[in-house]
Amino acid sequence: MFKKGVLASSLLILSSVVSAEGFYTGISVGESSVDVSGFDDETTYGIVGGYKFFEHFALELSYIDLGTYEFNEVLEQGIVEFENKIDVLDFSAVGILPLSDSFELFAEAGVFYWEVEADARFQSIDGNDFSITANEDGFDLSLGLGATAHFGENFSMTLKYQSFDADDEISNLSLGALIHF
């Protein structure tokens, strides 16, 4: 009887670890793509901080460097080069669905601030080269889906897909590591 009580108590403690409230922070690495022809996928890096209010809800703030998208085209008159660097600051509400003591699914919706630094250069065959740099920013909606696997009391890994609906749709698939406080 005593062993069953200890086992039941241990299971309750472990399940409370997964659903425990509190702060968390982490890093991520992934791959993003922008819905514009001619641009290749880019490696992304991010940092995140959040607070889990209860088992099914958290708020997150994250910064993601979505990479630098480059496009080069050789024309009869010369070479055209475009380079766009994209950064995102995202604030999201996260709905969480625990499936077991150590695994959960989540969906998130939020608002993100984006900033694009665009450089365009033209190298003419007759020597009349020119370049232009422009910055653009704005606020738009973000959506995400993912899964979290918990490894012990203070560490978890996430796999997340995010869609950022700016002037052009940007998607990001990332793997993250979180530390819970």
Automatic annotation (TrEMBL):
Signal sequence coordinates: 1-20
Keyword Transport in annotation: yes
Entry annotated with the keyword Transport: yes
Domain Outer membrane protein OmpA-like transmembrane: 20-163
Pfam family, one: OmpA_membrane
SUPFAM superfamilies: OMPA-like (SSF56925)
GO cellular component: cell outer membrane; pore complex
Gene3D superfamilies (alphabetical): 2.40.160.20
InterPro entries with a match to the protein in the record: OMP/PagP_B-barrel, OmpA-like_TM_dom
GO molecular function per UniProt: porin activity
Keywords: Ion transport, Porin, Signal, Transmembrane, Transport
Protein family membership: Belongs to the outer membrane OOP (TC 1.B.6) superfamily. OmpA family.
Protein name, as recorded: Outer membrane protein OmpA-like transmembrane domain-containing protein
Species in which this protein is naturally found: Marinibactrum halimedae
